[in-house]
Write a structure and sequence with these properties.
Chain A has two domains: about 5-330, ANL, N-terminal domain (Rossmann fold), CATH 3.40.50; about 330-435, GMP Synthetase, Chain A, domain 3. In chain A, about 30% of the residues lie in helices and about 25% in strands. Chain A has eleven helices and 23 strands. Chain A is globular. Helices cover about 35% and strands about 40% of the residues of chain B. Chain B contains five helices and seven strands; from the N terminus they run E-H-E-E-H-E-H-E-E-H-E-H. Chain B starts with a strand and ends with a helix. By secondary structure, chain B is of the alpha+beta class. Chain B folds into two domains: about 1-70, VC0802-like; about 70-140, VC0802-like (2-Layer Sandwich), CATH 3.30.2130.10. Classes of the chains: A alpha/beta (about 425), B alpha+beta (about 140).
Chain lengths: ~425, ~140
């Protein structure tokens, strides 16, 4: 089903006209209201009236995640605080999180985007949605929640964790749609099986999964085990949250971008130049309708390509290919973004440990695991086992508290961490060969 | 009455202990007593050596994290109840033994036990009051 026939099937020429109008509007708004953008545009000698055609977007400056951090918490907002009705935030150590704000209209638009997404995945008003994305500052839980209500289906706000209970309620309530990370879906399947519940036998028929990279082989695995159609959803809190793009259940080849709300570009991550049509590069978004925190050319670091050919499902919106990688070293662990630099900060803040560390990411069964190897130095060394174990526990606790991920800390000898050309190899991601 | 113990961090994998003994052997340092505490991931090797500074410098140069820990070498009567009487007086004074291990050589008719106390100075005072003999570091290293 297509939820918003007008916008989702608009002839491309008309859609692009609408995008241009909205682009001119957003550039004028940020020039007027966000000192950061006024300065950037002035530096480039660009005025809002210089935006005459869609390709003029290339005149605009990029926005990086660091820009949001530099203006922590509310410095990038384009409206006064009274007009913000909700705050969300991505993970980060103290002072390093990126904070986003939504106006009443932003929340409404976001809900409509999720409603479109649910419909594209095959859900309708009669569906029961078991929403296992975390509720809170993370955009996943509340984002999906609003959209389910917007669609008129029933939402079960189960949030994350308590897997055995989730399996029980999945059976007892008879949910027909599951929303969570793909790895959690498999974890839930295993837990249910141990309790003698076979999810395949339940009414569940659709899974909408996102917030971490996954592959087609993982999709097949999920579909076979759970007996459902598994749909990929894409989003990021800086741009909106989940629902920026969604796969259609009909074709399942690329994710439809909500192009009336976002202008997508593919650039060369090295030079910043636009890539030729259809080539793989870094995905960049400009928010066209967002009021709370509109962003120009936000660099997602996600690698993808765009396809503007009409889709057999009837939608005319461009499709982005499933994200195949990242242009930087950000790790996504169980749906949580983790930067090595954040681990470094935590180590420095924990008894002044030297930041010689290595992150080992693996997948145990269906869940991502993170091991942090830390080189021990004289300043924190002790002749007593209990003190060193206490140190490990303290680091684990800080990582959990600041980043929201569970890590196993392992102390190693100095120089115990592999170095190539003097530069420590910071990340070993063992999940990759399975992809 | 105190003695210096060398504490060395070891990853729990094959060959690490041998690397320590290789460095000590090449430095001409003799091991007088040792104890190894371990977990599944790492261990701490505690050594009393003939030349503390030399051992420490060479192990550090070899890439090990080493520390200096103050311990006490106590002469324990070599008969049933000998160690017990000492632990009893420590318990009464509420002094905690973090760990202990035996010294290789005897001191006359006494066994020698290396103690790591939570309150070293109080422990030494207490043992002295009870007439228990302790072996100072410089003598211990050359025993």
């Amino acid at each position: 089903m297509i939820f918003d026939v007008e916008h989702e099937t608009m002839p491309r020429e008309e859609l692009e006209k609408l995008q241009l109008l909205r682009l001119q509007n957003v550039v004028a708004r940020v020039y007027e209201n966000v000192p950061f953008y006024r300065k950037k545009l002035d530096e480039r000698g660009v005025k809002p009236e210089h935006i005459q055609k869609l390709s003029d977007v290339a005149l605009l400056p990029f926005t990086e995640k660091q820009d949001l951090r530099n203006h922590y918490p509310f410095g990038m907002f384009a409206v006064s605080r009274e007009n913000i009705v909700r705050i969300h935030s991505s993970s980060g150590t103290t002072g390093k999180a990126t904070v986003v704000g939504y106006t009443k209209r932003d929340i409404k638009n976001w809900g409509l985007m999720i409603a479109r997404s649910l419909a594209a995945a095959g859900a309708t008003t009669g569906d029961f949605v078991h929403n296992a994305y975390g509720y809170g500052l993370f955009t996943g839980g509340l984002g999906i929640h609003n959209g389910v209500e917007e669609l008129g289906a029933t939402v079960i706000p189960i949030s994350g964790g308590g897997t055995r209970r989730q399996a029980m309620l999945l059976r007892d309530f008879g949910a027909t749609v599951l929303t969570c990370t793909p790895s959690y879906a498999l974890h839930l399947y295993d837990a249910a099986k141990e309790m003698g519940i076979d999810i395949k036998e339940l009414p569940l028929r659709i899974g909408i999964f996102g917030a971490e990279p996954w592959t087609d082989s993982m999709r097949n695995d999920i579909e076979n085990k759970l007996g459902i159609t598994a749909i990929d959803i894409y989003g990021l809190s800086e741009i909106m949250g989940p629902g920026v793009a969604i796969e259609c259940a009909r074709v399942k080849k690329g994710l439809h971008i909500q192009e009336d709300h976002f202008l997508a570009e593919i650039i060369d991550p090295e030079t910043g130049d636009p890539m030729p049509a259809g080539e793989v590069g870094e995905l960049v978004f400009t928010t066209l309708t967002k009021e709370g925190i509109p962003l120009l050319r936000y660099r997602t670091r996600d690698l993808s390509r765009l396809n503007t050919a009409p889709c057999r499902c009837g939608r005319t919106t461009a499709r982005m290919e499933r994200v195949t990688g990242r242009s930087d070293d950000m790790l996504i662990i169980r749906g949580v973004n983790v930067f090595p630099s954040q681990i470094e900060t935590i180590l420095l803040e924990t008894d002044g440990l030297t930041p010689h560390y290595q992150l080992i990411v693996n997948r145990q069964g269906t869940l991502d695991t993170l091991e942090v190897r830390v080189e021990i130095d004289e300043a924190v060394f002790s002749d007593q086992i209990k003190n060193l174990q206490r140190l490990e526990t303290k680091i684990e606790k800080n990582i959990k508290e600041f980043l929201g991920v569970t890590a196993k800390v392992k102390l190693v000898e100095p120089k115990g961490i592999e170095r190539s050309e003097g530069k420590a190899k910071r990340i070993i991601d063992m999940r990759k060969p399975q992809a | 009455m105190k003695a210096d113990q060398l504490s060395i961090f070891l990853e729990n994998r094959a060959g690490r202990l041998a690397e320590v003994t290789r460095i000590l052997s090449e430095s001409g340092v003799n091991i007088r007593a040792l104890s190894l505490a371990d977990t599944s991931d790492f261990g701490i090797l505690r050594l009393i050596v003939s030349d503390f500074d030399k051992a420490k410098d060479n192990l550090k140069a070899g890439g090990f994290t080493v520390g200096r820990t103050t311990v006490v070498a106590v002469e324990v009567p070599d008969h049933p109840g000998g160690l017990h009487s000492i632990l009893e007086m420590l318990r009464n004074a509420k002094i905690n033994v973090e760990y202990m291990y035996a010294f290789v050589q005897q001191s006359g008719s006494h066994a020698v036990i290396i103690f790591r106390f939570d309150r070293t100075d109080q422990a030494i005072e207490l043992l002295q009051q009870h007439g228990i003999n302790m072996i100072p570091g410089d003598k211990l290293y050359k025993m």
